[in-house]
Amino acid sequence: MALLRLMPLLALGALAACNRTPSFDEKYKAQSDHISATANSIERQVTEQMSGAAEAERAAAEKSARLPASGNSPGIP
User: Fold this and answer.
1) What domain count does the chain have?
2) CA nearest 65: which of 53, 76, 74, 54?
3) Residue 36 lies in a domain
4) Is residue 55 part of a domain?
5) Measured between alpha carbons, how far is 77 from 73 in angstroms, rounded to an integer?
6) Helix or strand or coil: residue 77?
7) For position 59, what pLDDT does the model report?
8) Once rounded to an integer, what is the mean pLDDT over residues 48-64?
9) Does residue 66 lie within any of the structural domains?
10) Higher pLDDT residue, 72 or 63?
11) What is the pLDDT of residues 1-53, one digit of tens each?
12) 67 Cβ partners below 8 Å, 6+ apart?
């Protein structure tokens, strides 16, 4: 009988716990984690672009080093 009286209170307690809004610290941590993840993603993209640009510069330097000194294109007399 006592258990039947406690059931509605337990149900209300469980429902109240589900609707609890996050605390300031929880919100701060979530935002901090999101910002860190975004910053890491941007840093990876920039690193990839920089290495791609360096590779393109290297390829251009190799290509210009293989051209004849006269400035003519290879195969043209």
Assistant:
1) 1
2) 74
3) yes
4) yes
5) 9
6) coil
7) 92
8) 92
9) no
10) 63
11) 666 777 777 777 776 666 678 999 999 999 999 999 999 999 999 999 999 99
12) 73, 74
Structure tokens at 64: 């210009």
Q: Kindly state the tokens that stand for 60.
A: 């251009």
The three-state (H, E, C) secondary structure of 9-49, written as one string: HHHHHHHHHHCCCCCHHHHHHHHHHHHHHHHHHHHHHHHHH
Place of tokens 């195969």: 75
Distance CA 40, CA 65 (A): 37
Residue type, 68: P
Matching residue, tokens 């791609």: 52
Residue listed under structure tokens 């290297």: 58
Residues found in the chain: 77
In a domain? residue 17 = no
From its phi and psi, is residue 67 left (phi > 0), alpha (psi between -120 and 50) or beta? beta
Q: What's the DSSP call for residue 72? A: P
Range of the domain at 38: 25-61
Query: CB–CB of 68/74 below 8 Å?
Result: yes
